[in-house]
Automatic annotation (TrEMBL):
Record-level GO BP terms: DNA integration
Protein name: Uncharacterized protein
Record domain Integrase-type: where: 238-279
Record InterPro entries: Integrase-like_N, Integrase_cat-core, Integrase_Zn-bd_dom_N, Rev_trsase/Diguanyl_cyclase, RNaseH-like_sf, RNaseH_domain, RNaseH_sf, RT_dom
Similarity remark: Belongs to the beta type-B retroviral polymerase family. HERV class-II K(HML-2) pol subfamily.
Organism this protein belongs to: Hirundo rustica rustica
Record domain RNase H type-1: where: 96-233
Keyword annotations from UniProtKB, A to Z: DNA-binding, Endonuclease, Hydrolase, Metal-binding, Multifunctional enzyme, Nuclease, Nucleotidyltransferase, RNA-directed DNA polymerase, Transferase, Zinc, Zinc-finger
SUPFAM superfamilies for the chain: N-terminal Zn binding domain of HIV integrase, Ribonuclease H-like
Origin superkingdom: Eukaryota
Residue span(s) of domain Reverse transcriptase: 1-69
Keyword Nucleotidyltransferase applies: yes
Example GO molecular function: DNA binding
């Protein structure tokens, strides 16, 4: 078999004798055509098994209708120096671990990419801040990449970005798709590469942003938000924050917060509901719009029926109480159906 490819000629034969004969004929033909050949340019390789004589491959490709090429695809992945490793071992845990907790965050205004964590040895909060140009999602993804680079030991990754949480959760045993944004593609490739070579487990947790819930997770997220915020942004007067601070000192109820700080009922309820001290003595709250008492006499009455067996046939006593003054009006009846209630009220 003789194959011409660009400025090379490949001569292949089944045995050495046939190869030498075919090579001599090829050289004579090229010289006769006017080509000049140098002896040192002729390379002789050890015996290879050509694919055209590989029966298993021929059967496999017998009904294949696509194209076969010896060149790598034009995907960016094959032009990078990153080497991916396919492993059958899952390093992403589906359950929380007893490990370090890392909080990534980013800001589009300050372009800060932040990770913060509590050092288990010193019990002090530490941080890593880098300026990253691009969208907040790209900056927070860069923070997640630094977490994988910095911490080879098991850890929790707590993020309020659904995009970052989804990317990291699905990166194991995946191949990044080609995207036009070079910076984003590099970050995606790093995430996949770092996870594919990772030995220790990690766990991804997605939480809601800017929540006032108590606990370690909310505290770490608030610290990450504060680190990512622009330095030049001065604190503005916030009535809601003032109400929260006041409630921590005096523990007003919902009505007191509404009257003092002019909050909505929902805002006041949100402050009281997250106070651990108030939860120990909390009473069942009335539904929205209910008025527990009237503003004037004989304005709001509460009515019920009680049974007094010593009254005989008229044991059904209908009772009404004025919620403002506490005045009571009652009368005995022979039943408690709607018709009896109407007679009582009329």
């Amino acid at each position: 078999m003789i194959l011409h490819y660009m400025d090379d000629v490949l001569v292949y034969a089944a045995n050495d004798d046939l190869l030498s004969h075919a090579l001599d004929l090829t050289i004579d033909s090229l010289v006769a055509a006017g080509f000049e050949l140098q002896e040192e340019k002729i390379q002789r390789m050890p015996p290879w098994k050509c694919l055209h004589s590989h029966k298993a491959l021929q059967f496999a490709l017998d009904s294949y209708t696509g194209q076969i090429s010896i060149h790598q695809p034009a995907h960016k992945l094959f032009r990078e120096q990153i080497q991916f490793k396919l492993s059958l071992k899952n390093v992403q845990s589906r359950r929380p671990l007893k490990a370090l907790t890392i909080f990534p965050d980013a800001s589009g205004a300050s372009h800060k990419s932040v990770i913060t964590w509590k050092n288990p040895q010193t019990q002090q909060w530490e941080k890593d801040i880098v300026k990253v140009e691009g969208s907040p999602q790209v900056a927070e993804l860069a923070a997640a990449v630094r977490a994988f680079e910095k911490f080879p030991e098991p850890f929790h990754l707590v993020t309020d970005s659904a995009y970052v949480g989804g990317v990291v959760s699905s990166a194991e045993q995946a191949v990044p798709s080609e995207v036009s944004n070079t910076a984003l593609f590099n970050l995606l490739s790093k995430v996949v590469n770092l996870i594919s070579h990772r030995e220790q487990q990690f766990y991804v947790m997605h939480i809601r942003s800017h929540t006032d819930l108590p606990g370690f997770i909310a505290e770490g997220k608030r610290r990450a938000d504060a680190l990512a915020a622009p330095v030049e942004m001065a604190p503005l007067p916030n009535i809601f924050e003032q109400a929260k601070i006041s409630h921590q000192l005096f523990h007003q109820n919902e009505a007191g917060l509404v009257r003092q700080f002019h909050l909505t009922q929902e805002q006041a309820r949100a402050i009281v509901s997250v106070c651990p001290l108030c939860q120990q003595h909390a009473l069942p709250a009335l539904s929205a719009g209910a008025n527990p008492r009237g503003l004037n006499s004989c304005e709001v009455w509460q009515t019920d029926v009680t049974h007094i067996m010593s009254f005989g046939r008229q044991k059904y006593v209908h009772v009404s109480v004025d919620t403002f003054s506490g005045a009571v009006y009652a009368s005995a009846h022979t039943g408690e159906k709607s018709s009896d209630a109407m007679k009582y009220l009329i």
